[in-house]
């Protein structure tokens, strides 16, 4: 295969990574933005989403599509509920103090991981995609006969991968509408801007916090349900999404939602491309170096605004 | 009637207010005077439930609002115009006002009424609050509090850093609200401004009450002020 088609293939893989990463990171970013706390257990909410997806899919009979659709509805709801519960029982007790919250969420991380190991076990288990048609992709060239389109051998993707990209985009638009156009979004933004004044103007900040933390967990779980048919559910799978989400949130500018999406696309695409042409390890090394550079030279993030 | 009954409050372990007692009757302007750091802003935060009371009680028309969670205080009819305005800067003028309406459970007629008092805001409803001029921001902070149809208004240095024309506009609105029977607790640094609007003046120092006097007495005898403020 020539370089061009190869690059397109790598970009498509990267776009799938970027789509799921954007969902996961937007959850982390939302929590940091509104609540000013770092959720170290975020990757475990992702992992729980994948494990629950397997559990639901294997208990719902019928065609794979049915199990998947049920999982898509139930897993984010269940994980979101669990996250909201963790907020009300644990984070509220430590008063959302930044340092104590980090320690508390590390505790939650290990509890979720070990409980999953004890119940679900150490195996990696697949979830069947609802549909998975192979789609050949065209390429073009300027040859002696002028412009022509052809179908290189091996250049293909699957309908499911395209679905993941589309679904993630739809959910991100939904999050944007929620924040920009709805009443609850207005309360979240007011809380983010000035917690004390939010209280002074009757906003139930504690409920807003539980909602935001639940929403963050649900978005991570949703990303996991989407990706689990192309990967496998495993109790240790939360580490990578956590690391990458942190990278994305820092590069995008802490708490900035558009910045987070832009950074997810940047990191996801370059991860896909570098992994294909060089090695996945190099992709991670470069991303981590980029974070270090951003922290030193542009602490507000590549896409963040100047303030704070 | 807003009553502070021997409240003790502070930040963490640092106690600032000590047995502070104040009463603001409906249709009355009580001015709180005291040096920088005397605890005036802290008093307002304590009323809003933003600081836990160590002891004492804050009552509004007999109801103990200090026993409520902080976010329920505004709904009882307490409008807060904080020092430094503290607008939701990235939100629009309309959204800031909407949050005020929501806090009081009020409808569009209250919004119309607030905008009639500050017509200049009407032209700027879609603008982000942080892009307003200083005077307009103070108008918005005031209108936001009026949108919850307050029974009591807390104004913390509302004229700080404003031009004379803006100061007059704010003061007119304060007078309108007083005439409508709203109780007003006003913190103001400039003594002449205090004397021109206040009904009574409460002096505080180190979070404690000094004297509370009728403004009439102070207008007659300015030396009383110098004595209490030590300026
Ligand atoms: N957030 C805070 N944490 C700790 N101490 C504070 C805080 N805010 C104010 N103080 C202290 O409380 C005292 C009263 O402050 P304040 O109520 O703001 O005075 P003012 O009368 O000037 O409004 C001051 O000694 C100040 O240093
Ligand atoms: Mg003050």
UniProtKB/TrEMBL annotation, chain A:
Which protein are we looking at? Branched-chain amino acid ABC transporter permease
One matching Pfam family: BPD_transp_2
GO CC terms: plasma membrane
Q: Which domain of life is it from?
A: Bacteria
Chief location: membrane
What is the scientific name of the source organism? Answer: Antarcticimicrobium sediminis
Where does the UniProt annotation locate this protein? Answer: Cell membrane
Q: Which GO terms describe its molecular function?
A: transmembrane transporter activity
Q: Which InterPro entries match?
A: ABC_transp_permease (IPR001851), BCAA_transport_permease (IPR052157)
Q: Where are the transmembrane segments?
A: 6-33, 45-62, 68-90, 102-121, 160-179, 208-230, 242-269, 276-297
Q: How does it sit in the membrane?
A: Multi-pass membrane protein
Recorded family membership: Belongs to the binding-protein-dependent transport system permease family. LivHM subfamily.
Provide the GO biological process annotations. amino acid transport
State the UniProt keywords alphabetically: Amino-acid transport, Cell membrane, Membrane, Transmembrane, Transmembrane helix, Transport
TrEMBL record, chain B:
Identify a single GO molecular function assigned to this protein: branched-chain amino acid transmembrane transporter activity
Family annotation (PROSITE patterns): ABC_TRANSPORTER_2 (PS50893)
Which residue numbers delimit the ABC transporter domain?
Answer: 2-231
Q: Does the keyword Ion transport apply?
A: no
Q: Which GO terms describe its biological process?
A: L-amino acid transport
Print the keywords alphabetically.
Answer: Amino-acid transport, ATP-binding, Nucleotide-binding, Transport
- Endoplasmic reticulum keyword on record: no
Q: Which InterPro entries match?
A: AAA+_ATPase (IPR003593), ABC_transporter-like_ATP-bd (IPR003439), BCAA_Transport_ATP-bd_LivF (IPR052156), P-loop_NTPase (IPR027417)
Q: Which Gene3D superfamilies match?
A: P-loop containing nucleotide triphosphate hydrolases
Q: Which CDD domains match?
A: ABC_TM1139_LivF_branched
Supply the SMART domains for this chain. Answer: AAA (SM00382)
The entry sums up its family as follows: Belongs to the ABC transporter superfamily.
Question: What name has this protein been given in UniProt?
Answer: ABC transporter ATP-binding protein
- The organism's lineage? Bacteria, Pseudomonadati, Pseudomonadota, Alphaproteobacteria, Rhodobacterales
